[in-house]
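JOB MANIFEST
job_type = single_chain_structure
chain_count = 1
residues = 546
[input]
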Amino acid sequence: MTPESERRKDVWDLLAFGQTGWLYFTKISQPWLREAAKQWALDDMPRRRGSSVGTAVQAHIRALNRLSESLRLQRPDRGEHLTLLGRDDIVAYLNRMAYLEQQGTVTLKTRREHCVDLRRMLTRMRAMSLTRPGRLLHGLADDFALGVDDVPAVPDEDEVGHDLPVEVMQALCAHLPWLEQGHEREIRLAVELVIDTGRRPVEICRLAFDCLERDEAGKPVLVYDNFKSHRYGRRLPIAEATAGLITAQQDRLRAKYPDTPPGRLKLLPTSYRCLDGTRPISVARLQALHRAWVESLPQLRVPTKVEVDGQPVTHLLEFDKNKIFLYAYRHTYAQRHADAGVPPDILQQLMDHDEAVTTQQYYRVGEQRRREAVERVTAMQFDRHGNRVWRTVKALLDTERLRRAVGEVAVPYGLCSEPSNVAAGGHDCPVRFRCVGCGHFSTDVSYLPDLEAYLADLLRNRERLVAVVEADAWAKAEAMPSDEEIRRVRRLINRVKDSVNELSEQERTEIEQATALVRRARNNVVHLGLPAVRQPLVDFRPDRTS
C-alpha cells in the first residue's frame, strides 16, 4: 500500500498517509467533484495537527456530500457537467440546506458548519489552481462559490461558555473515587488534572513522566505541550495539591516500570497493549469512561430561580448530565478565574490562547445572567449614611439596566450621579472623592470588598502620616484622613454587612454569586490608586490543602 495507489480509490486507508482512520468519497456522485475532493484532501491533511486528522477531513467531505446531493436532485444533468454550473446552483444548495433544517434533518449548527466548510474548500480548490486550463476544474464558473453572506448566522447564546455550576463541580469531585473503581487509577488522575489545570484532554493524556518542575520561588509548574497551536514545553503554575497528585503518580510508575527510561515514560500510560508504560491513554477511552462515570452518578441538583404565582422562587432542579463533558472543565477553569478577578491578559496566558477574543468565549457573561446579577445586587442598595434605599423595584431595575447600557460613572466604591462628575466621566468630583459625605453617592453590596479596602487604606495612611516628621503641619493636616470619614465608611460597611447577615443562607449564596458576576462585568471604574480587590477562587475540593 502506497499513497499513490491509495489515492486512486474512493475509500482511503489513512495509514498510507501516516495517519489513522479512513476517508470516504463514495457519496460524491459527480466524478469531477469527487476527484477535486481527493486533491483537496491530499493538500489539506499535511497541514492538520492533532490525532484526529481523518475525522476533521471527513467532516469537510460531508459538506461536499451535501453539495453533490443537491446537484444530483436539482439539475437535469445531475451536476455531471461542471461548465454549466453557476450561482443558481449555489442558491439551490443554500435553499435545500434551509429546507433540511426546517425538516429537522440537520441542525442550524450543522447547516452553518457545512456552509463554512464548503466555502473554504471551494476557495482552496481555486487557490490550488484546479480551475486553470488543463486542470481538473477548468471551466467552473467564478460565481460557483459561497460568499460570507451565504453562511447563516447562529443566534448568540445566553451563556457563551459551558462552565459547570459550583454545586455540580463539588458533587463531581466528591464522587471521584467512583471513577477509580473498575478502572485504572490513570483515568481518575486524568480527570482530576483536567479539572485542576484546565488543560485540553489531549494535553493531559500525553503528559510526559517529568512534567513537574519548580520555578525560582520553589512553586510547582506543570510542563505540557499545546498540540493545537504547535507550542511545546508550555509552563503552567499549579497548586501544591495538584503537584502532589503528579508526584505520587511518578513514584507509582517508577515502581511499576523500573526498566523503562524516565525519558520514555508517560505520566498516564495505558494498560491496553502496553507493557513498558510508553503509550499514553487515548482521549477516546478517557471520554468514554468519563461519560460512563457521569451517567452512573446520582441526580445532580442545582438551585434555579423559577416563577411560581408571579413570584420568584428558588428550587433545586436536576442538572442535565449531557452538559458534563471533559472540555467543560476547561470552561469552568476559565470562568472561576475570571470570577476571581484575574485580568483578561493574565487569563489569556493561563489558557495559552493566541488571541484575547478566544479567551473571552470561555467566560463572557451573557446579558441574561448579568441582568439577573444586577437585579440581585441592586435590590440591596444603600445611600451614604448606610440606609437601605427602598424604591420601587421595577423603577430601580430599569434604572440600573439603563446605566449599564450607556456606561455608568463609578467611583472606587460606589456610583456617582453628580452632574459635573458624570459629564467628565468620573474625573471631576467637586468634593475630591469624599463620597461618603456627598448626597450624589450610592453603593450596593457588590462594592463591599472595595469599601473594606478603602477603610484599610485610610487607616494605613493615617498611621504613615503620624510617623512622618519632615512635613509641614498644614500638609499633614490636608492629607490626614478625617475621623468623620473613617467613622462614616466604617458605619456604611457595618450596615451593608448587617443587611447581608439578615438574609437566609440560600439568599446569601445567591448574592455572593451575583456579586462576583457584577464585579467582573463592571467597567469604567475610577481606581485613584486604591488597592485592587480580587475575589477568591471557588474551592471545589475543600478536603484537600491548596
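[summary]
Confidence is low (pLDDT under 50) at residues 156-160, 390-407, 523-534.
The first strand starts at residue 11 and ends at 13.
exit_status = 0
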